Amino acid sequence: MERIDTQIVVVGAGLAGLAAARELTAAGREVVVLEARDRVGGRLLNHDLDGVGVVELGGQWVGPTHTRVHAWIRELGLATFPTHDTGDALFEDRGVLRRYGGALPRLSPVALAEVAVAQLRLERMARRVPAATPWEAPHASVWDGTTLASWLRRNVRTRLGRAFFELVCEGLFCAQPQEISLLQFLAAVRASGGLEAMLETEGGAQQDRVVGGSQLLAIRAADTIADRVRLGAPVRAVAVSGDRVLVRADGVEARARRVIVALPPTLAARLAYAPALPGGRDQLAQRSVMGAVAKCMAVYETPFWRADGLSGQATCTTGPVRIVFDNSPRDGAAGVLLGFLEGDAARRLGALAPDERRALVLEAFVRLFGARAGRPLDYVERVWAEEEFSRGGYAGFCVPGALASLGPHLRRPCGRIHWAGTETAEAFGGYMEGAVLSGERAAREVLAAEPAAPVPAAQGV
Amino acid sequence: MERIDTQIVVVGAGLAGLAAARELTAAGREVVVLEARDRVGGRLLNHDLDGVGVVELGGQWVGPTHTRVHAWIRELGLATFPTHDTGDALFEDRGVLRRYGGALPRLSPVALAEVAVAQLRLERMARRVPAATPWEAPHASVWDGTTLASWLRRNVRTRLGRAFFELVCEGLFCAQPQEISLLQFLAAVRASGGLEAMLETEGGAQQDRVVGGSQLLAIRAADTIADRVRLGAPVRAVAVSGDRVLVRADGVEARARRVIVALPPTLAARLAYAPALPGGRDQLAQRSVMGAVAKCMAVYETPFWRADGLSGQATCTTGPVRIVFDNSPRDGAAGVLLGFLEGDAARRLGALAPDERRALVLEAFVRLFGARAGRPLDYVERVWAEEEFSRGGYAGFCVPGALASLGPHLRRPCGRIHWAGTETAEAFGGYMEGAVLSGERAAREVLAAEPAAPVPAAQGV
């Protein structure tokens, strides 16, 4: 068991943990980051396509309002390129395929009107929800006790209208409308700049990609504090005694004055704390659960659908793949179709053997893009619920009733223990932007609580 | 680090774990039970009132249909006595106190009729929910995507009618109707013999108490396998390799052929498993959360309310104490008022200093039973969310959307890892009866999977 003395321990080298560590390091503090995996980045994960480019098996997009991530991109010498967004999109409904040019598929006029009205209502309600403190919304308890499914049943009557919002819910939360409270949905909408901004590619949260893959954000950030990051060290226990914190990981123990736990709340609750955390904090963590998502990508010699005037984007009520993007590398040296399995589909197909899952995903691609889509050069995927140190994705959300009743515990420090992670963000929760914001906020808490910078006592890791 | 070789390891010496261990021992298998606390019983906890009797700070009641618990009571040489249930009950609504003699307080006739109709509807729906497999109910997905709060808003219009069902929900789940799906509510009703049976004292789940306190069930059961139970050994990790399981607790490692994890799912998920558990199992565990409850008891020289013709039972819409029982020891050597804090009230008051909480509870008792109730000889309580090895009570339940989508994972074994605990019971989940049933079922799974009884390799613990 190696022993390290430092000032601040950060648990987790995802974007949130790295943001906290960078901020603290910049303020002259000694930091050690303990990371369970043998890599940094958490839910960001690059995959090298044998020389033809990089695709991301985890989070990947950056929106124009994600200002902290854009600042990192500049600082770290990275660049972005636009998500491929030209050509017609496809909409598959009960086996019938339609292509369309605008923002929305040609649903029936009634469905379209309904969707517009419902979206307006949701946006209007969302404006009444304080982004950072949704539990203070006027009808917090009622909204948190109503699932999105219940709200849709009362406010959207057409099958296609409901299907649209189901796709929206899956696409944003990797969960079904049955699982999400209206308050949690509205809070996310409010905290992310509105539904439009969340759903759009150009001008929205899917606008840009990072050249070389989004994990470079974490890799480069970690490089700037490389001697402070310890990989392969899953943290198991946090013990606070007087003004000292002892953080125990496999193979290493770190002693510090404070700790920032930069994990999703459900995973943060799996550490053993001494003394035990307050009941309210634990009950909140029990009620913050991970969405279910699998990213599945088929790789072709070229993005052949572009020649047919297709954007490669598709939404399907049929499933199991319900949302598809052209995820080809920037230079077009290969064509990549990205299919998302989300919520129930991710759970159902996540339990299958890889071959069976691949066959179902390719079958969906063939229905959309023709027989050629069935003969990829390569196929890569990641089922995030299977990942021991993520247990789902994209992010965690609060189950019905939890946010209104226990929400303040999400980021309230427990003595010398501080909480980061995109789930705790005051804005853009669930996005990379939220992760960075949350880490920087936790770092500021620590700096405020430890205003003096004692003489560094840290050793190299 | 002590090393033990055995055939089966059981994690947790609550009723479920002890039931499993007894069953396996009776079948000639070598068992070791690893218990985190320095006592057995889990959520059963006796408290000795300085010689005047015993009260329970945890689960306590036994209903007439709880046949396995009654069998244990006989086998273990224990006895029951009836919960005090004579005299008038009290109903406090917005500060107005009413006493009543029947089963229901004198609500307005409209409210009474509404309650009757709604109860009938709920019972009727519950009959369509298979007790052991609620995810196979006809409208499972819709019912699981509707909170009880939403259902009540549509089906119960009077304030008092809603208040009644809110009390019911709190009383059964230690959670608000906002947190419980209709499917989870109906599943519990179905699995426990109907709402009447759950709510009644005489003839219902609160009918009897165990002489000497319910924890004696666990203590006596553990006595019968005393050399097999290891206290103060919180399990941290379970590693399966080939046909062997290694269970690592603080200070002791046990090697066996199989393990039964007899913890609430949310706590079971906090162990480190190698290999990692399937994603579906983990996602289900994330979505099974503990209710919030505090049991608060004031001790008086005598049960003075009985002389006034009061039963000591009360329900209050006012709060924070919403349900009150006469919990005096059998011989009446002392009077004990038991007030439950449940759901939001447990969370709110659970965060206060003990003195403040005590003052609020006694204030409620005074409103109900007069000034004398404000001067107890003693006051004892337990806030279960604060308990590191329970993290809430009475039991865990599945959050909206989880049961329909992930329910089968609740008790599906993961290779050599089996699941027990009242949350996994096929009937009477949440009750002591469910705990015993679940432990016995898990033991049968193990016996079926390991039909031959190899020569015992176990050493004493």
From TrEMBL, chains A, B:
<dbReference type="Pfam" id="PF01593">
    <property type="entry name" value="Amino_oxidase"/>
</dbReference>
<protein>
    <submittedName>
        <fullName>Oxidoreductase</fullName>
    </submittedName>
</protein>
<comment type="similarity">
    <text>Belongs to the flavin monoamine oxidase family.</text>
</comment>
<feature type="domain" description="Amine oxidase">
    <location>
        <begin position="15"/>
        <end position="447"/>
    </location>
</feature>
<dbReference type="InterPro" id="IPR050703">
    <property type="entry name" value="Flavin_MAO"/>
</dbReference>
<dbReference type="InterPro" id="IPR002937">
    <property type="entry name" value="Amino_oxidase"/>
</dbReference>
<feature type="binding site">
    <location>
        <position position="423"/>
    </location>
    <ligand>
        <name>FAD</name>
    </ligand>
</feature>
<dbReference type="GO" id="GO:0016491">
    <property type="term" value="F:oxidoreductase activity"/>
</dbReference>
<dbReference type="InterPro" id="IPR036188">
    <property type="entry name" value="FAD/NAD-bd_sf"/>
</dbReference>
<feature type="binding site">
    <location>
        <position position="340"/>
    </location>
    <ligand>
        <name>substrate</name>
    </ligand>
</feature>
<feature type="binding site">
    <location>
        <begin position="35"/>
        <end position="36"/>
    </location>
    <ligand>
        <name>FAD</name>
    </ligand>
</feature>
<keyword id="KW-0560">Oxidoreductase</keyword>
<feature type="binding site">
    <location>
        <position position="235"/>
    </location>
    <ligand>
        <name>FAD</name>
    </ligand>
</feature>
<dbReference type="InterPro" id="IPR001613">
    <property type="entry name" value="Flavin_amine_oxidase"/>
</dbReference>
